[in-house]
Structure formats: structure tokens, C-alpha cells
Amino acid sequence: MRDPLVSDDATGLIADLAGRQQTLATTESLTAGLLAATLAGVPGASAVLRGGLITYTEATKIALAGVDPAVLARVGPVAAPTAEAMALGARRRCETTWGVGLTGVAGPDPHGGHPVGTVFLGFAGPDGCDVEELHLHGGRWDIRVAAAREAIVGLRARLAVI
After folding, report:
1. Cβ contact 124:8 at 8 Å
2. 101 pairs with which residues across the strands?
3. In what order do the strands lie in the sheet with 24-28?
């Protein structure tokens, strides 16, 4: 039986990375490992997926991903600079070509002044780091699944321009 979360984009991402002999790690907050688990559902993922950090709290963002406490004090856990630091932390801690950081508000309540569905995706790669801000809709599960899917699509798009 096929994993219901694994899409053609996830399969394509694994193939894209393998074809380039590149690797990937994640730091996930709102998705709590869903991105890494989705990618691990693709046969051959072990050739590129090196690991993932689940940093559901500010303390674990600091301890596991190496996010600077000053960043969190300045902008909070749901912000572009935080997602960037999380992506860089994944890349650095797991010694990979790419790091992806996901942070946001899945609900049911707003957090830190951000409405439910606000998500920041950080992408750290060989040429630097950039962040996407998303405004997703639906329930908690819908937002988490959509965030993981958008991270997959976003990384594939970045690989296409290299």
C-alpha cells in the first residue's frame, strides 16, 4: 500500500537530490517530523535524507537547531528569521547540502500575534538561505500536511534553478 502522504513531488524530490548527490535534513516545529516522515516514505530516501530535528519549543530550537536565543527574543518562534535559523541549524547539525526549517501556527488558536495558518519555510542550501511565508487554510492537520507539501515543492523549485 502506498503511503497516503507521499506525492509525486516527494518522490521527485528524492530523485532530484539523489541525482545531484545532495543530502537533506529538516528542523520542524509545527509539522513535528511530518516532512521527514513523508520523505522517508519514498523508496530510496535513505540515500539523501540524513535526519530531522523536532523543535516544538523555543528551548529545543536553541538546544537542537542552534537557533540564537536573541533571534527568538527579538521575533519569536513564528517568524522568517527563526525559520532561516532552523534551516541553517538542520544543515549544520546534520552536515547536509540542504536544510529545511518549518515553523508556524497550525491552530486551533493564534500564536504570538500570528493567525492560524501562518507558516514560514526556511531553505538553506549551497548558495545561501531564503524564506517563504505561507498563509494556509483548514484545520490543524490540513495546515500541517500543506506545510510539509509546500516545503517539498519549494525545495524542488530551488533545485530546478541550480
Report:
1. no
2. 27, 122
3. 49-54, 24-28, 98-104, 118-125, 128-135
Domain boundaries, the chain: 28-160
Instruction: State the pTM of this model.
Output: 0.96
Give the DSSP per-residue string, the chain: ---TT--HHHHHHHHHHHHHT--EEEEESTTTTHHHHHHHTSTTGGGTEEEEEE--SHHHHHHHH---HHHHHHH-SSSHHHHHHHHHHHHHHHT-SEEEEEEE--SSS-BTTBPTTEEEEEEEETTEEEEEEEE--SSHHHHHHHHHHHHHHHHHHHHHT-
Q: What angle do CA 15, 20, 152 make, to 5 degrees?
A: 50
pLDDT digits (tens, 9 = 90+) for 120-160: 999 999 999 999 999 999 999 999 999 999 999 999 999 99
- End-to-end Cα spacing for the chain: 34
Class of domain 28-160: alpha beta
